[in-house]
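User: Show me a protein chain along with its predicted structure.
Assistant: Here is one chain, sequence first, then structure tokens.
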Amino acid sequence: MLLFLARRFNIYRLYMLSICMTIAAALSASSAAGAARPSEKPPANQAKAAALADVASGRILYSQHGDEPMKIASLTKIMTAIVAIEHGNLEDKVKVSKRAAGKEGSSLYLRAGEAITLRNALYGLMLRSGNDAAIAIAEHVGGSVEGFAFLMNKKAEELGLENSHFMNPHGLDEPGHHSSANDLAKLAVYALRNPEFKKIVGTQVRTAPNPNDSWDYKWVNKNKMLQMYEGADGVKTGYTKQALRTLVSSATRGGQQLVAVTLNDRDDWKDHASLLDYGFARFPLVRVVGAGEPLKEYPFETAEGFAYPFAEEERERLEIRLVPLNPESVQYRLGYRGQLKFMLDGRQVGGVPLVADAEREASTPKSGQAQPQADRPSVAATASQRTFGTAFQTVLKALLLQGGE
């Protein structure tokens, strides 16, 4: 009997020891997870100015002397390309002038009188940084270099690039020609939303017909980030004696695309990798609401989705407001019912339109329909003390039938 009890006691001791080891392992894993939290401090870099932005939202995630006007070299060609895409026909033949063919600096070695499609000229411009292509594009689209510069500055004004002014389409140093890291981040965000631009800057090698010889042009992209960084998909390199090394890069991971900018940076490849790593870890893109999600209290549904790059400590501070339309307005008669506004620390960071859920609206008597109050805060404002996982889902469940993901 004593032997039996001793054996049972030893089994019990081993069982309790196993539980303790499991708990210790769990605590260790939890501690490790806490230690692995992304750094709140951005990585050091060698740049005189830098910026980091999220493409989906346009949010500037990091800025270092971001509004200081500086020489930008061939980063100018980002503006050249998007203006040409928007104002030109990509299948048009661009005739190369003597002025274009003789332009100094990096070149495609186009010859005067040669004809090249605007599309191929843009590939040469962005992959090989051809200054001859830049002049040819400007003369074709804007009528002259001066006319094209006017279009560039008009676009800069439209995009709110307050610290930018363009004198030429190539970026060679010239008085009055400058931009800033923040402005270039905003410009790249805008340009990358254009499918043609996005395709061009993500191309590693391009061939094009060469009317002067038996072999085709072959242009290999100068942007080494395309080979060096996982997910890299753009954008442009630059260098002049006054600007020194400049770079705009982009990368996509997990459905999120970021843009990094450095000006006058002697170690730009390394710095861009570090900035992009920091952005993906620190500001992951979070889906807030999807398209077509119905509201709980009203016969409305979201017309589009919304996602935002939150830092961890920001997520619990998100506030969602419902802003209804006047039933007598034209928009209301067209089927719109209002807007969901997304607020962070009192500042609007996004919004999605609301449209009528026809089936629910038809089955709900008007006398029984809840009437939303203008610009009323959602329950998010009262949920800020909870964790993001709890508070955020509470907000969505209060507003949407599905309660989000």
